[in-house]
Specification:
about 80 residues, mainly alpha, about 55% helix, globular
Length: about 80
């Protein structure tokens, strides 16, 4: 499995550099070395629920999305404080 090609083909990343950043941020190398391809897909999909690919400003920085994804936390399980 080529992780970069999979991310681009499935609209998880728009180009190789973005895919590379996601690979590093989500620590996908360790899953790839263990040939846990379904876990890779699940982790990237969870990340995209935190940071949709079609929006640049969604209120959550990439590093926070990486941390929340690595913790396995779903967006619908989090209550956000009212900013007003």
């Amino acid at each position: 499995m080529n992780i970069i090609e999979w991310m681009i083909e499935n609209n998880m990343a728009s180009h190789w550099k973005q895919a590379g950043n996601i690979i590093v941020g989500l620590r996908l190398g360790e899953l790839y070395n263990a040939k846990q391809y379904d876990a890779i897909k699940a982790r990237v999909s969870l990340y995209r629920r935190w940071r949709p690919a079609n929006t640049k400003s969604n209120g959550i920085p990439a590093y926070q999305a990486y941390d929340l994804t690595l913790a396995g936390i779903e967006p619908q399980d989090v209550e956000f404080a009212d900013a007003s």
